[in-house]
Amino acid sequence: MANSQKLSQMTFHLITLFPDAFCSYFGESILKRAIEDKKIAVKFYNPRDFTRPNRAERGFRADYKNRRIDRAPYGGGPGMVIQAEPVIRAIESALGKLKVKSERSKVGIVWLTPGGKQFDTKIAKTYANKYTDMIFICGRYEGIDARVKKIFKVEEISVGPFVLTGGELPAMIMIDSISRQIEGVLGDIMSLEENRIASPDVYTRPEVFKYKNKNFRVPKILLSGHHQKIEEWKKKKQ
Questions:
Q1: pTM of structure
Q2: Rounded to 5 degrees, what angle do the CA atoms 125, 128, 132 make?
Q3: Does domain 10-190 bear CATH number 3.40.50.300?
């Protein structure tokens, strides 16, 4: 298929301080099955695992949760900024695994930010066809030290014209959208609404039901059996 992943598996590498935030979404429904069927794989890299405490902080950092990952921003301002070095080491760890995996690995690095390029289905299809591996850098707090972007070639992406508390939700959205483009993830490639005429309004049995003394019916055209007219109706609804 022209719009499906040619390789057997795509791996998503997530740089995040909160890997547990993904457990529920990746543990249910289509993405769970895609992971079990080895259509996709998900790996996590917590920057806290890549911190290097100095002597003065070693006693304090004996507790994993207390490992310092952020500092006050230069130039002032509210909030804290995630330091560059732990994030860089986390990305290097992901890239190191790719070299072991295969010399043919093609990786894309996504920097999730409200000011990035607007993500859409076209981008999802491009990523599914272009890469074997994708690294998502999920920011938190006031963001990540921008020098990370000077070291790695990243693509800055936004999932919408709004600001969230972190990059985890945008990463889930993108992984869901990209995974749908990989052959076998949906089972039937015709399930891709973007590849067929699909109406935002859908109906199923019963043909009529009553709510507060009012009958709600399925549109007659959908019961007609006239496929051409049904397709025309769907086009108008799109």
A1: 0.84
A2: 160
A3: no
